[in-house]
Amino acid sequence: MYKPIRVLLTIAVVAVAGCGGMGTTKFFHPEFDFGYTERVAVIPFENLSNDQGAGARASRMFVAELLSTEAFDVVEPGEVAKALGQINLVRTADLDQEQARTLGRNLGVQALFLGSVGESGTMRSGGGQVNVVTMTVRMVETDSGVTVWSATSTADSKSFWSALFGTGGQSPGEVMRSCVHTCVESLF
User: Fold this and answer.
1) Stated pTM of the model
2) Which helix (H) or strand (E) holds 7?
3) pLDDT digit string (tens) for 130-145?
4) Which residues are registered as beta bridge partners of 26?
5) Lower Cβ count inside 10 Å, N or C end of the chain?
6) Which residues 6+ apart lie within 8 Å of 163 measured at CB?
7) What are phi and psi of 135, to 5 degrees?
8) Would you say residue 137 lies in a domain?
9) Which of 106, 139, 134, 126 shows the shortest CA–CA distance to 166?
10) Mean pLDDT of the chain, nearest integer
11) pLDDT tens by residue, 113-125
12) pLDDT tens digit sequence for 14-54
């Protein structure tokens, strides 16, 4: 009598484990002491996807997520934009080590967070649609201009229940927030 219940539970556990999890790739500089980082700035994220405005949305969510950890004092985005204008930097991917040091001095920060949204959109999956976000974020120490942490994460709206009942799962904003949360969580 218990055997059919165990079989059904095993199938459910395997199905749930196989849905929605995409994972995170992360890097930590082996010699960097994160304990000395108190004040940071988030450089506006680049958008490499076809989803217009995805970089700006990810940047705002990343700032909010960092603030929620209470681990750092985060410079206001307007101050960051002003400092970027002073060094005439348009494409943040082109930031070199000297510019990172200059921004660090001008903003009074020990580290900069830079990121990009590589994918943000809706894909067809089976009989439905799935929202997918992939982002890469890195932390650059401003004294040396060296990357001390980096994470790449992908999140999607697939879940066991959405697959089972054919529902849409999470909204695009919820998927992006989940991806941002996973990146920040990997830092701690």
Assistant:
1) 0.79
2) helix 2-17
3) 889 899 999 999 999 8
4) 151
5) N
6) 15, 19, 126
7) -140, 155
8) yes
9) 126
10) 82
11) 999 998 887 776 6
12) 344 334 445 788 899 999 989 889 999 999 999 998 889 99
Q: How many CA atoms lie within 13 A of 187 on its CB side?
A: 25
What is the H or E stretch that residue 2 is in? helix 2-17
How far is the C-alpha of 93 from the C-alpha of 113, rounded, in Å? 12
Residue with tokens 């490499």: 48
Could you give the count of Cα atoms lying within 13 Å of 176 in the half-sphere of its Cβ?
Answer: 24
Number of domains within the chain: 1
Rounded to whole angstroms, how far apart are CA atoms 56 and 99?
Answer: 21
Q: Is residue 154 part of a domain?
A: yes
The token pair at 46 is: 């680049």
Q: Range of 46's domain?
A: 22-187
The three-class DSSP label of residue 135 is strand
